[in-house]
Each structure stands twice: as structure tokens, then as C-alpha cells.
Design a protein that fits this description.
Oligomer: single chain
Structural class: mainly alpha
Distance between the termini: 21 Å
CATH class: Mainly Alpha
Order of helices and strands: HHHHHHEEH
Largest sheet: 2 strands, antiparallel
Number of strands: 2
Helix content: over 70%
Radius of gyration: 18 Å
Shape: elongated
CATH superfamily: DsbB-like
Strand content: under 5%
């Protein structure tokens, strides 16, 4: 039953909606609780949107499940890396000295891409603040769980779509 619901375009569309739903939830949390996202939060949102776009393209193309599964898993792993880094910064906030520095917009407009990514990756200060939790989990911890979940989901979708193709032959 679940295989039938998730096979083909529907499964990918569900992934697309879930990715952008999480970004929408992040924006809701940001506006409701008057929180300013740090550069690492913004980076994770960009990765969620990228992953969502990959799910959408897979739904439109509806071919090459191995290729899309690999791209989706790779993107989810990149997001998991950013979330893990953010979580590490929060876990060591007492020993961090500098702040995140200038905002993401300023970095994007005034620094070369390599420098911008270096500054984002060194995020501290604001990135170390724990402003909101749910069930005792911080936002980066929740994002890490979501990225891992999306990676597993991408593998599952790839598998059931490959099997569906084989059964049609």
C-alpha cells in the first residue's frame, strides 16, 4: 500500500512538499518568535530548498531513479554536515569567543564565494545561541534528523521506483 502511494511522481512530490514545508516552518518560527537566523540556519534552509528542487525535478522527469536518489542523498548529507557543524557550535558555545559576524546578505554582496563560505563555516556567537527548542531538541538537531530522514527517504524512493521499472519490463 505504502509502495503504491510513494512510487512514481507522488513520492517525489511528497518530498518536495516536505522540504519546502520545513522551510516554511522555519520562517514561521522566525517570525512568530522574532528570531534572526544565523548564517548556518540560512545555509541549512538553502540546502532544504535545493533538496526540494531535486525532488520536484525527479517528479517531473520521473526517470533515472538511481541518479536522482544519489543526488538527493548527497544533498541530504551536505545538509547533515551543516546541521552537525551548527549543533557542534551550540554544544561548545561557552568556549566560543567571536560572534557570527556580519549577516549573510552582507557576506554574499561583499565577499568572494570562497571567503563567504569560510565565514559561514566558522559561524559562532549568534550561531551558538539556542533560541528555540522542541521536545528538548534545538533547531540544528531537528534539521539533522530531517536531513537523515530525507536521505533515507530518497534511497527508499529510488529503490521502489527501480523495482517498479523492472516489474514493467
Amino acid at each position: 500500500m505504502l509502495k503504491n502511494i510513494l512510487s512514481g511522481r507522488r513520492g517525489y512530490l511528497i518530498g518536495f512538499i516536505a522540504c519546502f514545508g520545513l522551510v516554511g516552518l522555519a520562517l514561521w518560527i522566525q517570525t512568530t518568535y522574532n528570531l534572526d537566523p544565523c548564517p548556518l540556519c540560512i545555509t541549512q534552509r538553502i540546502v532544504f530548498m535545493s533538496l526540494g528542487v531535486l525532488f520536484l525535478i525527479a517528479a517531473i522527469v520521473n526517470k533515472r531513479p538511481k541518479t536522482f536518489a544519489a543526488l538527493q542523498v548527497l544533498t541530504a548529507l551536505v545538509g547533515a554536515g551543516w546541521a552537525t557543524r551548527h549543533w557542534w557550535i551550540q554544544a561548545h558555545r561557552e568556549t566560543m569567543q567571536a560572534s557570527c559576524g556580519v549577516g549573510f546578505d552582507y557576506m554574499f554582496e561583499n565577499f568572494p564565494l570562497k571567503k563567504m563560505f569560510t565565514l559561514i563555516f566558522k559561524g559562532t556567537g549568534d550561531c551558538a545561541a539556542i533560541d528555540w527548542t522542541l521536545l528538548g531538541l534545538t533547531i540544528p538537531q531537528q534539521a539533522l534528523i530531517a536531513f537523515i530522514g530525507f536521505g533515507v527517504y530518497a534511497v527508499y524512493l529510488g529503490k521502489i521506483n527501480i523495482l517498479a521499472k523492472l516489474n514493467r519490463k
